Amino acid sequence: MQLKKFTGFSIENDSAIPLRKWVGISVETIENLFIQVRNGSGKLLKCTIVVISGGQVQGEYTSNPLNLYVENSANLTIEARAINHNQKTQTVLHGGDGFYKTVVFNLDRASVSRIDIN
Amino acid sequence: MVHNFKEGIDWIADPTGATPLANHIFVSKSGNDTTGDGSPGNPYLTVEKAYTIPATNNQFNIIVGTGEYVVSNLTGVFSTIVGDGVVIFSDPNNNLTLTTSRLYANNIVFKDYMILAQTSGGVCNSCIFINSDFGNLSSTVQSVFNNCTFINSSLITNQNNTSTFNYCKLINSTISNTNSSGSVAGVFFLDGYADENSIINSSRLPARGEIDRSNIQGIIQGYFTIENFFSENPKFQNLPGFDFTLQPDSPHIGAAIDGSTIGNGYVGSSFFEGIYELDEAINNNENVRYNSLGEIEVIGDNESETITLEPVEFEFLRYIGKVRISGFPDLVINTPTSDNSKINPNFLSFEMRYAQNDGVWTGWKKYRFNEIPSLNADGKSNAENGYNWADNRKIIARKYQIRLTILKTSYNAA
To answer: Residue B11: CB partners within 8 Å, gap ≥ 6?
Structure first.
């Protein structure tokens, strides 16, 4: 193998994302999925909610709360990531104060799930 | 003098970087063996000089700044040589013997060396050996290589102890321990990779070597216990360009004993010939090209050229990972010139800007290669003077863009 000088560069993926995520609510049937992202004070955050199912990004939504209709939901695992927009003056780190203390899932058909991710 | 060392500095106790850790000696291409005192601000010029400072058997750390050094003879026993940045020990005449009782080295590239004679054991971490050979290790002290890469190199010994390789890569290389007099096992090759042109040999009956959890495509000779080894395409991003980051479906990922990646690999994204962003950047500058070896070089009259890559976007906000330079850049002119004589030590850098969800680009800043792009709280980037490595904040971005300044005769050193 011939020695070579500068050939390019590469970037290692940093597997961390700059905020908490939760993975895996497994439900038999979800038709109307209602997602709220609130901070530790219970205030709705301006954020982007990314919904991933089957390893694929199904959509990014800037509304919060978010109402989704999910098709073919049997045995579906949904991963959702909430991304804060208000980044201009502060650095977001894992579990930083004021970020994503609580995420509320309101599931249709009277089932309510509350997930703390702090 | 303000310095740019990262390693060997007590950043916690003194965020200004002026205070070295105990038992650390510093070497830089801007140093001086006569007037220097081995401190970060006034380092020595040569590794040999630094090696003479510790009393025998004292374990000092010798911190060596970015650059290419010709090191021929190290008289000392236990000091560890630590590369701070891109540090290449090279021998342009390919006839030097690195003589040292034991070799302790971290993050050093050894190029065209014969490392033997009194060498007896030692520990090397994250080193790269190119066209280099170890030989005649005859001590009862074991040799340990962690996260090292061997390219066109060999370790051939009848050492009366183990030669252990953890998370190492062999590219067209041979490791062999043929001592048959003892009962201590010979070659341990664990969680590593050996390509189809490499040989692993251990002839130590009644004891046996071990090959565990490794991707072996080459030849195994001798006597081993072998567990969970396999032979598959490792899926490096670009082996000819010396990019050993892995594609997302590499069999190396998660194959190590602790669930980490064998061969000291990392999943990454390449920027090489054939990758759109880099090709476009080079095509857009008529004074930059790939030569026949796939190296990036400057042509024309200008001493330097800047190429700017297309932006890269993430699906969502992410941390930007470590940016590694690939290949083995010619650092000969890295000796400080009149223009950058105050840089101590030099480092290799690129420029980057980024944007978050609002899409507004930050300004261009310089960041060090082979580090995670990072900032201080005040926005200072890790290639700026006075950077505080105790306040190291990774960068969060939705998209980023990189540009490189390349010198005519070498990669740019700040």
So the answer is: B17, B388, B389, B390
